[in-house]
From TrEMBL:
Protein source organism: Mesorhizobium plurifarium
Name of the protein in its database record: Uncharacterized protein
Entries under InterPro entries matching the protein: Trp/Indoleamine_2_3_dOase-like
Matches recorded under SUPFAM superfamilies: Indolic compounds 2,3-dioxygenase-like
Listed GO MF terms: heme binding; metal ion binding
One of the GO biological process terms: L-tryptophan catabolic process to kynurenine
Length: 394
């Protein structure tokens, strides 16, 4: 595997420094990415205005129903189902985000307006429901707005999909952009660790140095979340990304970053299993919420037959030994003291990343008492966050 140099593949540092800078109150859309034509135009340009109108009117129920009629009328004006199936993969990702953003907001605003389940389904409408189901058939995924829709396929750098206007919309864009940049760093870390694990003669120092640099970059971005994100602006857009009020589904959450799982498995897979097996049980139990490609690869590493199934493997049920070969540990054990120290630095960077994520979630969600998006009603958010810590929580 030919891994590019850190400097060549690193995120735009201006973009990183601009996250949560609060210097602008509008989004500069530098490049229009509109795979569904007028549907994409509506999501990117008009939807935030329609949401603001609904929130500001006394006739909320009628305003939400009118929104549903508008969306279904646009869908009726063209053969969007056939168009969806003929898009390239990159175009399809954005198109699915557009569709799921529409579906999600109709449900969220229906609940805001006090509609019952039956009226909410009528407001969603058959055409929107059908094209949303079709998008999930082409790219198997959970049937609500997912972390992948919100973060990975949302074109946030040039033409973001957001629900809010003005400064809150900019903060919403920065929230998604920050996560997207972190995901890029994590993917690069995964690639370098796979190089180390799988390629005979791989330069361990080079691979681990690049991995460490990317984990430190991810830490820097996550620290900007903790130190600079506005609690008030976060509260304004956060309400639109809650659990679907009519379905027993979890909402998009950093809990469902498959790349965090991948880096954790590659670096510390066996130790995490020994100390916190619930981490793995939850990943398998909630596998449908993770981006399928990445989590499928992780399941392949952890499976005796290399299949990307979400079924719990024998080792997680006490019927086999943990597949240490899925990790870089066998390689590291054969290396020099200096390499093992560099590896330990990577583990420390990952630990600091998981701790900062927990700290930020506590600051912006739990302490202010905001509803929790990525956990079941019976789960403790703090316990879920602590599953990924390599040592005891502070």
């Amino acid at each position: 595997m030919n891994v590019p140099s850190y400097s060549a593949a690193s995120p735009d540092q201006r973009a990183v420094r601009g996250i949560f800078s609060h210097l602008a109150d509008r989004i500069d859309r530098r490049l229009r990415i509109r795979p569904l034509g007028i549907i994409s135009d509506f999501v990117a340009d008009q939807l935030p205005h329609r949401i603001a109108e609904i929130k500001n009117t006394e006739q909320r129920a009628e305003a939400v129903k009118a929104l549903g009629r508008s969306i279904n009328a646009m869908l009726a004006a063209g053969d969007y189902e056939a168009h969806l199936l003929n898009l390239t993969q990159s175009e399809f990702g954005v198109a699915k985000t557009d569709i799921q953003y529409l579906l999600n907001i109709v449900y969220q605003m229906s609940a805001f307006a006090g509609l019952n389940h039956y009226d909410a389904e009528l407001t969603v409408g058959e055409r929107l429901r059908r094209i949303a189901a079709l998008s999930c058939e082409r790219e198997p995924s959970i049937d609500v707005l997912s972390y992948e829709d919100m973060i990975l396929t949302n074109p946030v750098e040039s033409d973001p999909r957001v629900y809010c206007l003005d400064s809150a919309g900019v903060e919403e864009r920065d929230f998604c952009l920050g996560h997207q940049l972190i995901e890029r760093d994590l993917q690069f870390a995964v690639d370098t660790l796979l190089e180390l694990r799988d390629q005979v003669g791989a330069d361990a120092r080079w691979c681990l140095t690049l991995c460490l640099e990317r984990l430190e970059s991810a830490n820097y971005i996550l620290t900007r979340f903790h130190d600079h994100m506005s609690p008030d602006l976060f509260g304004e857009f956060r309400e639109f990304y809650g659990k679907n009020p009519y379905k027993n589904r979890l909402a998009p959450s950093g809990r469902f970053s498959a790349r965090v799982v991948a880096v954790s498995v590659l670096l510390m897979g066996e130790e995490i299993f020994r100390k916190k097996p619930q981490f793995y049980r939850d990943v398998y139990r909630l596998s449908e919420y993770y981006p399928r490609g990445c989590i499928g690869a992780v399941f392949g590493w952890l499976s005796s037959d290399k299949r990307s199934t979400g079924a719990q493997p024998g080792w997680l049920r006490g019927k086999a030994a943990f597949p240490k070969i899925a990790t870089v540990s066998p390689v590291i054990e054969r290396k020099s003291t200096q390499i093992r120290e560099l590896y330990a630095s990577c583990v420390d960077a990952l630990d600091r990343f998981t701790r900062m994520h927990r700290k930020s979630a506590l600051k912006y969600t739990i302490e202010p008492g905001r509803p929790i998006a990525g956990v079941e009603a019976w789960e403790s958010m703090d316990a879920v966050l602590s599953q990924r810590l390599l040592t005891a929580a502070d």
